[in-house]
Amino acid sequence: MNCLICGAAFQPSPTWGKLFLYEKESSTCSRCFSKFTKSDTTIDFSDFQGTHYEGTVDAVTALYSYNEAMKSYLHQYKFLQDVALAQVFAKTLHEAFEGKEGIVVPIPMHSEKLVQRTFAQVDELLNSASIPFQHLLTKTATSEQGKKTRKERLEASSLFEVRTRVEAKNYILFDDIYTTGATIHHAAKLLKDAGATRVEAITLIKG
Length: 207
Description:
Largest sheet: 4 strands, parallel
Helix content: 25-40%
Distance between the termini: 31 Å
Structural class: alpha/beta
Shape: globular
Strand order of the largest sheet: 1-6-5-2
Number of strands: 6
Strand content: 15-25%
């Protein structure tokens, strides 16, 4: 098969998991995949202490760091609309969610942005990993959050609305990248205010 990133032919290594546990095949050659760096950064919530977002997020797990390889990947995947690249991290994401208890909730795109991008990149990452999810939130803010300071993000009105009933259960937010953490905290506060018992988050990248 051919690597989704460089296009070179490669042969995935056989494993017992692939034979008996339905483990997902790698879609990327080892040379390309080795350029991604696992995140060892501890997520710091101190900026949210003393705000009305304090305590809304119970835990965050970020899987990879934002390096040059990841920057190139995101550009190709999100902005050049290479939806097939969702498969690159399918195995990693499947393992990250395995054993987790909770309803998975992807961070949604605004409807206008979805038209521009043609696909919801966060949803496709979950689909590639065969992770079931529920759309409980609707994006209401149209402004680019990446262009705002952390203070501006925290002071902004809510970025989302709850679109359906939230039960007293555990929820797992999922987004492609965690930068200041404001997006995750906005979403978590809505879920907690609506009745969620616990809200944690998993993101592909720590920016």
